[in-house]
Amino acid sequence: MKKTLRLICLSFLLASVFTASAQEKPMVLSFEEFETWMKELSPFGYPYTETGKNGEEYLATFLNRETLKMIGITMAPLSAFDNHKQFKGAEVYDLKGHQAVFYGLQNFWNLTVALPSLNACLQITTVYLDASKQELEKELEKTGALKK
Questions:
Q1: For the chain, which has fewer Cβ within 10 Å, the N-terminal or C-terminal residue?
Q2: What is the DSSP string of 35-46?
Q3: Where in the chain are the domains?
Q4: How many CB atoms lie within 10 A of CB 89?
Q5: Fold classified for 2-18+25-147
Q6: Residue-by-residue pLDDT tens, the chain, 148 positions
């Protein structure tokens, strides 16, 4: 169990390894607004577990406690978006008028989308769950992020 929790923490750190500098404009959404938004979601049918902050980033976890499969949603400053393009195998593309980056490894997949209207980027990351680009796009659509 400790090894699993360490892996989950490591996955979130990998997803947010490139953070933005403190000199940029702040994100439009407050942590409290992010937390309220995340409590309304259930990506891939996983229940909301918790939210937290890592520096300027907001994190939400959705965990299936039986299988220990997890979905993480992270909101980071917009300047962090370009750093996701540097991951090995990253696919940069347009997703309904928004810049997007998809990348991953076995059991760890990430879709990051730039949201200039919020001065942020939003990531959906899977842990112990293989997810295709199309599946992550569908879950991102359900969040309503592309309409914000």
A1: N
A2: HHHHHT--GGGP
A3: 2-18+25-147
A4: 8
A5: Protein Transport Mog1p; Chain A (3.40.1000)
A6: 434 433 343 344 444 444 434 346 899 999 999 999 999 999 999 999 999 999 999 999 999 999 889 999 999 999 999 999 998 899 999 999 999 999 998 889 999 999 999 999 999 999 998 899 999 999 999 999 998 8
